[in-house]
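User: Okay, second chain of the day. Same drill as before: sequence in, structure tokens out.
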Amino acid sequence: MRSSLLPPFLRACALLFAGILLPVLAFASVDDEFVPEGTLFTRFSSRLETQDRAIDRGKRENSLKEYVIPEASNRSQINGSIEREITRHDLRFTYGFSDNWNMSLNIPYLQMEQRSSLSTAPANLQATVARLQSDKISGIGQVDLVNMHRPVFSDWNGFIWGYGLSLPGSGQQTPYHDSTTFDLGPPVRRVFIFAHYTRYTSLPRSRFDLRVLLRMGLKRSVETTSGTNQVLTPGNQVRLKLNWSQEIGAVFYGLELDRAVDRANRLDNESLSDKRNSQTLRLQLGFGNLLDLEQGPVDFPYQVQVQAETVERGFNHPFGSAVTLSLLMYF
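Assistant: Same drill. Structure tokens below.
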């Protein structure tokens, strides 16, 4: 049975919570920190992820080899194993131009390592093994520029909507194959739009967040594993999140369910049949002095958060263990 970062009891409670609420509320998140006019919000986070397994196209847990080599006839002739380790550092700035309008910039830096012992004898599979050899890459990932508007904010309800642009921070590190390509991110520009509803409950300092995002990629010529340049048409992504969080004194904790669906990519209008989806569960714990702001000015408002996550189910999607440590600051 698959191991989880969450204790069995907490995991069972989380799934019960999701089963009760999902039919009514779908999913959400607290991704869009909104600040008053003249305030600067900064978040620095570091995420360590090890991908050593995958949920294959039969929705079964398997090795990562099943994900990067989906063709069973080819995979049976290739020996060895493969895994990936991804360290990601994000620096995000959000500035309040008014109480109803914020802009945000997120800059990620990634360090990625692919460890592979794959080998094969057939000549026609040598290129596949070469594509998946051990490798290390690093650089700036996709940079997000976000415009956010908050038309509703009251004691009980909040609503934010926004749109933005994602730009590749670095050029292609490796030739493009499909969504399994070992690279810093999709080598295309993407636009996105989202809506985010918050419900503040009668329980003090407790909230539910519902977030829906649609991300669309723009066509671009990319270098491929065949040695030619082809036009990549990225598939759209839909993401739904549900988040519940609570603050008690200096302690913050929360639970998030994240559902993502990625449509298949196309090269020169030919489908790569690489669609995938996932359902991820996250447990969040934090500590800080943000509640002190209710009593008056604070010299250094901050919160430290740690987040553990596990993929509960999916289709054609990698998973392993992932932990994120974040520092939130306000100026």
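Residues 1-7, 9-29 have pLDDT under 50 and may be disordered.

User: Thanks, on to the next one.
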